[in-house]
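FIELD: query
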Amino acid sequence: MGSEPAWRIELLADRAELIPAVGEMRWRDWGHAPEPEDLSWWIDVTREEAGRTGLPVTFVALGEDGGLAGAVALGRFEPPELEDRSPWVMGMIVAPELRGRGIGRHLLGHLCRWAHGQGHDPIWVATGDYAAGFYERCGWQVTETFDRPSGEHVTVLALRADE
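FIELD: result
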């Protein structure tokens, strides 16, 4: 057949048993300095982001077999340098072995439609250089770049409902 698996998107709040797996997926990619290195911190943050109707909210991508493929959150997290903007995309992750299959685009599109349906316009993301191109390919516009005291280069992008 050759067709892609049917990824489905669900609220993490409806699949609370996946909170540890989402936290661990994020920890494996990001759990090194200057980010927190303790796995339990990542699981706790994931649990806190698992809202149902308001912010923060997290969506998970699941494969046909129900396996976790990725996750993305939206919340009022405000990088200290950008306190005047909200809401922010947070914790966008796809399982390494599944990257490049459109899961991230599918997850992000779902999140954006939900956000805009809730009246959030624009929505924002702050990311390192490694992911800025992904957001641009998804229609996001770069609004600024800056360097954090840690030396990390940050790209800030926004998406408006009409884009």
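FIELD: remark
The mean pLDDT is 89.
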